Amino acid sequence: MTRLWLIQICYFVVAVLFILGLKAMASPVSARRGIIWAGLGMLLATVVTFFTPEMRNVLLIIVALAIGGGAAWWSGKVVKMTDMPQMVAIYNGMGGGAAAAIAALEFARGEIHGPVVTTLATLGALIGAVSFAGSCVAWAKLQGVMQKAFRLPAQNAVNVVLGLVTVGFGIAIITSAQIAPGAIIAFFLLALVLGAVITLPIGGADMPVVISLFNAFTGLAVGFEGYVLGNPALIIAGIVVGAAGTLLTQLMAKAMNRPITNILFQPISGAAQAGGAIEGTMKEVSGLDAASMMRYAQKVIIVPGYGMAVAGAQHKVWEMTQLLEEAGVEVKFAIHPVAGRMPGHMNVLLAEAGVPYDKIFDLEEINAEFPLADVALVIGANDVVNPVARTDKSSPIYGMPILDADRAQNVIVVKRGKGAGYSGIENALFFEDNCRMLYGSAQQAIAEVITHVKEMAG
Questions:
Q1: Is the dihedral of CA 448, 449, 455, 458 positive or negative?
Q2: What's the CA angle centered on 221, arms 215 and 227, to 5 degrees?
Q3: Which residues are catalytic?
Q4: What's the pLDDT tens digit per position in 434-455?
Q5: How far, in Å, are 447, 449, 450 from residue 288 at the CA level?
Q6: What is this structure's pTM?
Q7: DSSP conformation class of 358
């Protein structure tokens, strides 16, 4: 009895560490501390679980922990910051897959009794399997293994039919006195196919929201399976992750002005070309002229995007910022909520380069300052600065809140070429009279600007 009480007390401490860790992650200043707290909570939960009475297969658990922990340690060390969205996507998938595997094992053992436990196990299995398959597809797209979105004929009808049939098998499992192995296999296969089919048509523009949604799914699935196993740590961790992921998904969907249903059933694919015709031409600027415009400006606002991440240009951007500030220029960074390929992607990159947190501003904080800026420097960002989101009702991104870079006195866009961005939507900003294009890799382009700024400093 004493041992059980000690285990429950430890699980309570774990819950406190998870919640404090999550709260600390809400700010870049305290995020590192939050990750450490949450990690300590997970370590304590894992160690305490070994003291559960009648624990079996200890050796197998240790081997699994060694393999999983070793793989996570290695991937955490070698993964590039630009590949972090892929890593998050596949970790989401592993969590969902683990939750589904717990349910599959319990079904196979035939030890689930009672409608509540069976229902939660089935829900966890469904959500976990969908999250696993969907996250694997998301990883393949982000990694470049899958180059384009695939949309089936009558895609939405296929989604609905697959979903209904899968739920039907789930109900059969819940209501059956003796679960047939064939029904279990069919249920899991259909859930996996459903997750893949839902994600296949989704393009890069919607991917940050989808990753966040699968993160919420994984949390919920783990919470359900924690109830099945009677493990408070799994229940608490799952509910915390599920609730946080759900809130984040809603916030990001709001930032894109797109309901979750539209993201899943009417995704912006790479083939999206809707919207009115854009007039004008793109006007090129040299590195020397770009440097001159910023070196002699009073205020510059930098808008980083995925192009900066791909080029690994964050350190050069910070070096340029320091030179401009030494010349008396006020420099700020503007971050859109869905910039990059995952939530907080740009914040992480800028923090890695050493950019102080007090120079980084969210959309609501910075938008009023763009008309006062002499230069808005857009580096590899696209849809988040596209003014058609305000003006063109036929555009797929109409209504999405954007960074008002076009309202700056001058705009410089660093871009590899003249093509449309990852979402496939032409950007009207690039054709504005006050906009100039600085073509090339972000790292090379900013390095050239740095060279000229240094020459101007004499």
A1: negative
A2: 140
A3: 383
A4: 999 999 999 999 999 999 999 9
A5: 11, 6, 9
A6: 0.77
A7: G
